Amino acid sequence: AAAAAAAADVSDGSPPFPFLTLLVSGGHNMLVLTRGSGEHTILGSTLDDSIGEAFDKTARLLGITQIPGGPHLERLASAGDATRHKLPRPLSKTRDMGLRA
To answer: Fewer CB in 10 Å around end: N or C, the chain?
Structure first.
């Protein structure tokens, strides 16, 4: 996480502390608070898949074979009815601080 946060393009060469980094990788995702150089706190992380993997799996369930699935799902969603289905909120009753909506 520290290397990913340090790799951000900052125009003057030093990031303004504190800052948040949303690390989205091919495996897992993390939200990291950086208070200073080398001072990182992971605020939350995914429990299983990365965001991209979740989109790809959802796309496959809908019969979309192109990867990445996210752009195809976005096109379908823009033409959909956001109120048609009430979706569950997984882990909404837990105090675990993993990333979730």
So the answer is: C
